[in-house]
Amino acid sequence: MKFLRKKTIIANVLVSILIGSILFTGCSGSKTTSSSNNNGKNELKGEISFSTWGSLEEKKVNEDIIKLFEEKHPGTKVNLQYIPEEYTTKIDTLFLGKKAPDVIYGHPKYFTKWASQGLLMDLTEKFNEDKELMNDSKFNTKLYDAFKYEGKNIATVNGADTMVVYYNKDLFDAAGVEYPNEKWTWEQFAEAAKKLTIMGEDGKPKQFGVSIDGAYSLAETFMFSNGGKWFDDMNNPKEVKFNSKENIEALQMMQDLIFKYKVAPTSSDSKVLGGGFDAGKIAMTIDGVWSVVYRKDIKDFKWGIAEIPTVPGKEKRIPALYAGYAISNTTKNPDLAWEFSKFMQSDEAQKLLASSGLITVINKKIANSDEALNIKGAPENHKVRVTTLDKAIHNDAVMVNWDESLTKVFNPNMDLLLTNKQSAKDTANKIQSGMEEMLKQN
């Protein structure tokens, strides 16, 4: 069924019945619908379009996956729409012009918005009919929950990546500091950052222990590990929980690392420093494990990754970024679009995605394979990207106006916190009230 916009009746819905299921038709880049052979089974034919963004390496991986799919299904063609910049803006424009790609790569926050506008296919029946996709022993099926809108499946999933600590081994060795491990506490993290911060004889910073910025995923890292929450449920938010004691403590620590302990650079310090972690000027940074693929060519120093620090007595929870594939409801070839989006969870496609280091794939066996973990340039402890998934919490709230909430509420208040112009408590309270208003509008 087509998704209805919340609090709004979507009119003029064209419904066509195809093989006993409700599908939606319209203008798109697809050609020729699937036909049935003499055995009553669908014979895939025709063309569809598939949109994605990313690095040139990621583009190449997708091209290789498309080639495999076309070889497996003769008579089909998948046209890659590579959109490296302003991706969602361009997809919005294509939707308006009724020229949306048939299969769309993206994160749950994008799919939630498009589903709320009635632009995506409901894939719930497809999932329920496919026993392999729902196989818990094969797939990390808990990831599916982030790709639902109003309880309906709206995408297949390629995987998820958690936040981790990147650290410069050379700087740790020079300072005589033990490398981070899975039992490291935030207190130990802060003490290490102090030892790794060096000021020059001229009083100007020469090296800092850690970098702190206003990225929401970084704030979530501090909050979630301290037992805090942004909402009662990130996948189905009903109540804002931002101004909790745990979250205020986490915000205070972020501010203290910059202004009290002076182990993280201010914006002016960063200008003097002339570079960050990748330049060997900062000993630790907290980032998504997806950045391993972008750091594997670092030659100037040895580096590693480790789990996010813990808070004694509290369950470790780590924010993670999810990605998957939705289908436009204007596709003229829904069977082919579904088969291709499902193929992205096949062993063949998952192996290519995993071996690139671009994502921790949803296929459990492949995620733990040598092909995935022993990629060229990866750190020794690369398996952290897999072991941390059991502790993962979706880092995007599944709400239509999530991006707007970040832009209008979260970002400006974090800017004040990290420039020492607003207290942690005031920051939490203002974001709490702002998010409550955003949730009402959702």
UniProtKB/TrEMBL annotation:
InterPro entries: Bact_solute-bd_prot1, SBP. CDD domains: PBP2_TMBP_like. Pfam families: SBP_bac_1 (PF01547). The keyword Amino-acid biosynthesis does not apply. It comes from the Bacteria. Keywords: Cell membrane, Lipoprotein, Membrane, Palmitate, Signal. SUPFAM superfamilies: Periplasmic binding protein-like II. This is Sugar ABC transporter substrate-binding protein. It comes from Clostridium botulinum.
